[in-house]
Amino acid sequence: MQEIIGQIRSEDASHLKPFIGNYAVAQPGVKGLEPPIFSENKKSHARMGVHHPQLVGMLCPVKQVNTYHADPKKVQEQLQNSEIRMSTGAWPALAYPGDPPGIDFDIEDIQEGFLKGHILKWVHFYFFYFGILFDNL
After folding, report:
1. Whole-structure pTM value
2. Which of 81, 89, 99, 115 is the most buried (most CB within 10 A)?
């Protein structure tokens, strides 16, 4: 049963891959990722995650987001070298709202805005709205 669930999740996520580059930014109709990510381009894949200049800010642990905005290249290097650890307990900036994500994070009230980041809203919309729509066809 778990194997089948894993396959279904993988299949659902594979439908989302071509659109990640379009919706990773807060205002996709205004400006996309620079450099862009193309789902079918292997070189483009190598620049994903902490290797992409914009995505790294979204994946940065939210408690480090102000440090990231003060010196993005230094923090990107620290994330790549694991000097700044990205653990399950360190929520990424993309979990919080703002443009850029997490910019309004309040260390005194970590629940404020939690799971209200724009990427999570897009993913929710894609999986739940379109999932329901396609299930009913």
Report:
1. 0.70
2. 115
